[in-house]
Amino acid sequence: MKKDFIKGYRLGKPGLEKVLGSLESEVMEVIWATESTVSVRDVLDTLNIKRDLAYTTVMTIMGRLAEKKLLTKHKEGNAFFFKPVLTREEFTRQMVAGLIDDLLVNYSEAAFSHFMQRVGEKDRAVLEKLEKTLAELKEQKDDYTT
Fold first, then answer.
1. Alpha-carbon distance 128 to 144, whole Å?
2. Which domains does the chain have, with CATH numbers?
3. pLDDT in tens, 3-35
4. CA distance 65 to 77
């Protein structure tokens, strides 16, 4: 699936707000927690426990999330119902993959160097595993070129 939801990355923002707006993040968290198809009213009622939002505001946000291909949308009578396209874990995995791919395409040497340094500071065993993987990849490449 194309990562349409990643349009920008906001370094100073927490969690999902790095790639989604604040209210978009809240809406997605409510939908993922529900683990079923939800109406705008369902989401609104949950969000309004802590704040006061208009129905049309939540409907607009959920429509935008559907346009970003994060939600599917269908109409039953006068109500729209939404379902997440990805689980939270799948979304996170794709978001991280997209960001890392972008860094590696545009800044591969700096990104890889920094990654290795950070891993080395945190966990020597992981660094050793990465070194082993790198050696195996080099061997595979040598096997293909000879």
1. 25
2. 15-86 (1.10.10.10), 89-145 (no CATH)
3. 555 566 777 777 888 788 899 999 999 999 998
4. 21
